[in-house]
Every structure is written in structure tokens, then in C-alpha cells.
Design a protein that fits this description.
CATH superfamily of the largest domain: Periplasmic binding protein-like II
Strand order of the largest sheet: 4-3-5-13-8
CATH topology of the largest domain: D-Maltodextrin-Binding Protein, domain 2
Radius of gyration: 21 Å
Number of domains: 2
Distance between the termini: 20 Å
Strand content: 5-15%
Structural class: alpha+beta
Number of helices: 18
CATH class of the largest domain: Alpha Beta
Largest sheet: 5 strands, mixed
Shape: globular
Helix content: 40-55%
Length: 453
């Protein structure tokens, strides 16, 4: 049996849930698919692109694709795929499941994988080691290089060749309320400034942070992403990748340092809403709402691009850009100010056929990515999609901020490590918050999982 350890059991559910609640997912007019209505002009442009990709080929039949998204997110993806079907005659049979990774693993082990799969990049790399996947650089390199920055392409690559296409793309940001936030802002702000502000707020009896850690299987995962972000902003993208791939051990001074930077905030009752114990039981879906509460119960949150949608869908009186905004997480090391952690999945192919090639070319095209962005549901990583495509000003700002040529994306353990390691890390965050003196044993326990012990 082929054993593929899947990653991001927590984030898949969290990001799906979060983006599932993003407002405006079906708010434009025009062609539809799966119950979602999209802009007619953009649908027509996507259909024309699919026809151009098909050219003189005679495509037929169907292709299967499996991913994590279900419900309204699955409907959105079906709407994205519909112009391809209308243009080529190839039916796209999408199956979304919260148990996607286990189902795919079982099908691969049985010798019957789906044509295409959407998972974290680390899972893609693991599958390719035993089941060679379709190398996109071999037939669509020019379009990929035209539509995406080298940083985005590198995160979807194996040995220098691109194998996957992103649909949505979520970065990790510092979220705040411009009307109440008193902390540092701007390109010159450092994490040291943030720490000093946190301490000053605590001394003044004001709570600086919301730090909801959720519950169940996701408990502790937000903290793990927070720690990765601090690591990336101090040690850079290459070190973050080395950590994720096991080259830098969890017991290293760098990883311990990142945990302690997180702990300087998260283990202090005066700094987090509800105190440390309260943060461990707060639901991630509503745990950031303190930013816009009246009166506010916190001023800052480190969490993903889905945070704005979560807050807007569960709190009242939210006006994006006015009382809710984000900024890049300030860096501890100035040279890594543009190093950005992220959480996203790639779509890749087990089967090499004219149909799967055409579909992935379509998915990577400006036209398809623009259509997806117009749903106002996820940021997309195609650099040619105008920010004005989004009606949400926060999504517009994310598009302007994170996909330029000066950004270096950082993939860490949450995207690259084995399931057991990520699960252990999330549990380790909880243990650390409950008992900061246990940090050394926590890190050793996670490293034992990395070593297969």
C-alpha cells in the first residue's frame, strides 16, 4: 500500500469554512454553473479561451477532479468549470469532501486515482515521488510564466517544473480595526515595535490581541500558523521551507525562538481576549469579531485572508476598509519584510490526456482566474487579474499587496510536513499555551513525529 501522509487536516477545514462564509460569492449577473451566477461577459471570455485552447483537437467525454470544497464553494468551482465544458464538450465531474485526502489516498493505493486532485503542495510532491504527475511546464510554460510570478510558480513546482495550478490563494495577515487600533503600521514597522506596543497596552489595562485557537481537531492550528509567520518574517523563505521539509529540526534554536515570540503574546492573560484559557476555547469562526465589537475586545489578529469574510458574515456593522482592514505582518528582520507565509492548495493531474491538459491550461488562464476572482470569494494569484475585478476593497488590497515581483512566498510545515507532524504541532501549541515551561518537551515531541518515532 502506498502511504501518503496528508497535510493541513486543520487548515483545509478552516480555510474552506472561512471562505465558505465570504460574502458576495454569487453576487454578479450572467452565466451560471452549479447554482452560482457569474458575470456574463467574463463567462463568455472564459468560454472563448477554452475554445482557443482546444483549437483543432476533438475533445470529448469527462474528467474527474476531487477536492476539499463542498457546499457553496463546490458550486462556485462548478461555475468556474462550466465555460470549459460548454466550449469543449468535456464534462468536469467535481467531488468535494472533507475527507478528500483519505479518499484520494485509498484510490491511489487501489490503482484508480481520479484524473485531477486539489491538495496542499506538499501532498502533490509526495504523490509525484511514486506516481509521476503531469508536468505542466512541458506544454504550458509560456502561459504560466506570463500569468504568475516566479515566487508563486516555485511553490507549485517540483525540481524546477510546475505541476500544479492554484485556484484560490490565502496569505496570512495582521488584521485590525483602523478606528480603534493604536499599534504600529506602515512599511517601517517591525515586530519588535508590535511587541513593545502589546506590552504598553497590557500595562494600560487594554487587551491588544484576539487569539482564538478553536476546538476539536483544529485546536491550536491558528497558533501554529502564527508561529510560522513569525519564523518566516525573521529567518526568511528558504529557512521556512527547510523547516517544513525537515531540514531544520523542531528542536532548533530558530524554531524555539519563533514559539517564544508567539508566547510573548499568547501566554500572557493581559494581552489576549479572554485570557490564555479563554483563547483556547474560542471558536475560530467568530473569535476575531472582537476587532469590530462595541466596545472592542481586542485590536489585532494574525490569521488568513479568509478573516475578513468570517468577521463580515458573523458580526454586524462591518465596513471593509473603514472598521476592518489588514496589513502585512511586520518583520523582525528587515530583509524579510516581503517574505509572506500563505495557505493554499494546488490542482494537479494524475492522468495525462488531451482533456486534462486543456483543462489545466484553462484553469491557469487569465480568463478563468478573472472569472474566479469576480465571484468575490477568494483572492487569486494570477498577476494579470486587475484588483478592480473584486468588489470587496479588502480583496482588492490583498491582490495589490501579495502578488507583485518583490514578494517571496514562504511555505512552511503547514504546507509541507506530514500529517502527524502538523497534528502534533497544533497539539503542541495548546500544551505550550497551557504550560509555557513545557516548550522544550513540546518541541522534542513534534520532532519525534518528524523522525517517525
Amino acid at each position: 500500500m502506498i502511504v501518503i501522509a496528508f497535510t493541513l487536516a486543520g487548515v483545509v477545514g478552516l480555510s474552506a469554512c472561512a471562505s465558505d462564509q465570504q460574502s458576495g460569492a454569487s453576487s454578479t449577473s450572467g452565466g451560471s454553473g452549479g447554482g452560482v451566477v457569474l458575470d456574463k461577459t467574463l463567462v463568455s471570455a472564459a468560454q472563448a479561451k477554452a475554445k482557443a485552447i482546444m483549437g483543432d483537437q476533438k475533445l470529448s467525454g469527462s474528467i474527474s477532479i476531487m477536492g476539499d470544497n463542498s457546499g457553496s464553494e463546490a458550486s462556485l468551482l462548478q461555475a468556474l468549470y462550466q465555460p470549459f465544458t460548454d466550449a469543449t464538450g468535456v464534462a468536469v465531474n467535481y467531488t468535494g469532501s472533507g475527507d478528500n485526502l483519505n479518499v484520494v489516498q485509498s484510490r491511489v493505493a487501489a490503482g484508480n486515482p481520479p484524473d485531477l486532485v486539489t491538495t496542499a503542495p506538499g501532498v502533490m510532491q509526495q504523490y509525484n515521488a511514486t506516481n509521476p504527475l503531469l508536468n505542466l511546464s512541458s506544454f504550458m510554460s509560456d502561459e504560466l510564466n506570463s500569468n504568475y510570478t516566479p515566487s508563486v510558480l516555485s511553490t507549485a513546482s517540483i525540481n524546477g517544473n510546475v505541476y500544479g495550478v492554484y485556484q484560490g490563494f490565502n496569505n496570512i495577515e495582521l488584521w485590525y480595526n483602523p478606528q480603534t487600533y493604536s499599534g504600529p503600521t506602515g512599511d517601517t514597522a517591525s515586530w519588535q515595535d508590535v511587541q513593545a506596543w502589546t506590552q504598553a497596552q497590557g500595562a494600560a489595562g487594554k487587551t491588544a490581541w484576539c487569539n482564538a485557537q478553536g476546538g476539536g481537531t483544529s485546536n491550536g492550528y491558528p497558533g501554529e500558523l502564527f508561529i510560522e509567520s513569525l519564523f518566516a518574517k525573521k529567518y526568511g523563505a528558504q529557512a521556512t521551507e527547510d523547516w517544513g521539509s525537515g531540514k531544520i529540526p523542531w528542536t532548533s534554536p530558530q524554531v524555539k525562538d519563533a514559539f517564544q515570540m508567539f508566547g510573548a503574546i499568547a501566554t500572557n492573560d493581559a494581552y489576549v481576549n479572554g485570557g490564555v484559557k479563554g483563547s483556547l476555547s474560542q471558536d475560530t469562526g467568530t473569535g476575531s469579531n472582537g476587532l469590530v465589537a462595541s466596545p472592542p475586545t481586542c485590536q489585532a489578529v494574525v490569521w488568513g485572508s479568509w478573516t475578513g469574510g468570517l468577521i463580515a458574515s458573523s458580526a454586524t456593522g462591518v465596513t471593509p476598509g473603514t472598521n476592518l482592514n489588514f496589513m502585512k505582518i511586520p518583520a523582525s528582520s528587515p530583509q524579510y519584510a516581503n517574505t509572506e507565509p500563505y495557505s493554499a492548495e494546488v490542482t494537479y493531474a494524475f492522468k495525462d490526456s488531451p482533456e486534462t491538459r486543456a483543462f489545466l491550461q484553462y484553469l491557469a488562464s487569465d480568463e478563468a482566474q478573472t472569472l474566479l476572482a469576480s465571484a468575490n470569494h477568494w483572492p487569486v494569484s494570477d498577476k494579470n487579474v486587475p484588483p478592480s475585478t473584486y468588489s470587496d476593497p479588502i480583496l482588492q488590497n490583498i491582490a495589490k499587496t501579495y502578488f507583485g515581483p518583490d514578494i517571496q512566498l514562504a511555505a512552511g510545515p503547514a504546507l509541507l510536513s506530514k500529517t502527524a507532524v502538523i497534528t502534533g504541532a497544533a497539539k503542541g501549541v495548546v500544551q505550550y499555551l497551557q504550560d509555557p515551561s513545557s516548550l522544550d518537551s513540546v518541541l522534542q515531541s513534534i520532532q519525534d513525529l518528524e523522525d517517525g518515532k
